[in-house]
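Project standup — Tuesday

K.O.: blocked on the structure for the chain from last sprint. Re-posting the sequence here as requested.
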Amino acid sequence: MKVIIIGGGFGGLRLARKLSNRAGFEITLIDRFNYHQFQPLFYQVATAGLDASNISFPIRKVFQQSKNIQFRLAEVKQVLPQDKKLVTDVGTFEYDALVIATGADTNFFGNQQLAEHAFPMKSTVEALQLRHRLLHNFEDALVAKDAGDKTKLQRLMNIVVVGGGPTGVELSGAIADMKRYQLPKDYPELDFSNMNIYLLEGTGRTLAAMSEKSSSDSQRYLEKLGVTVMTNALLKEYDGQRALLQDGKQIETSLLIWAAGIKGNVPEGIGTDLIARGNRIKVDRQCRVIGQSSIFAIGDVAYMEEPAWPNGHPQVAPVAMQQADMIAYNLRRIEMKSGQDQLMDFVYNDKGSMATVGRNLAVVDVPKPKLHFKGFFAWMIWMGLHLMLILGVKNRFFVFCNWLYNYFTYDQNLRLIFKEFYRETDKEKQ
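H.V.: unblocked you, prediction finished:
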């Protein structure tokens, strides 16, 4: 069976590993990056806590011992369901089963001005670009101070984070820790009592998807760290210099971080009638795209309704990984031919959710039994789990060493400004 997997995220990589060296399977894994990105720690790359290489792992290295898996670095152009073909920029591939695990990208909800000026954080490169801008703003602030431009100085020292979900909360807390421990040492000429960190959330509470206890605890922790939390605050526009809210309030800032929405990365060729809210592909309980017997979708890009989740599953890594396990089982049954009547339906096992807020501060919810943890103990749980999920022994070791170093020295030693990231070749520009 020829299986094509689009995307090397949590779901796609898990599925490929489950089918590795399985007789009867030829697997082609396609991704636009040649490395797996550990998204939960992007915010630590953005705030100089971790090196990008510590949370990235070469995909080819994962499958060095796999005889039935090939990897292609490519951009997907179109799916041709009738022909069972996938068109990419490096060629066309035939498949017996296609698994779409393309994840999600930042959703600016059609606001082109916001897309142009705001900083998203959905890839390692975007995290590095955010780090560059964050640090460079303080270099520019020194120049503005010397020039006596108070308005520009304040604009450079104000940071706005839009979105009170886990990403927004964790990023706000990490920046607040930088303000407290690192930045005053790096820039003694600046008065950091004038630095403001705003967290804007459109609903009535932060971490709205978690328990009310986690929401109230996270907001309390953020305010304790000096973050100005603004709930029921909707951003209207941002021109790169000031953020205008729906209620007319303006915030002068040259750095606005957008963590308020995501949308599924749906490849061309999937009918618009199959797209649910959030640009997610409608699938049945076996992750089959509705009306397609040989195309599957998993993870953030898939929209599945089940009795316990009538509005679809949360767009988190455990969902993608559990769906990958189910598809691996079903594909093996399909390959056996005699087992096609024993296919498994997906049932999400929610093991809980968590978010870290800052140094020694985190919240954890466990649904069964219903438990809530907070503070230092929750922070230790958060670190332990994320450390286990990182690919590669070396990466785990370096992340652990960085965390240990940061904890005892109150220092993040990766405050490096890289002005060049990727330079297109003349051929690519044509």
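K.O.: great, moving the ticket to review. The longest helix spans residues 124-147. The first strand starts at residue 2 and ends at 6.
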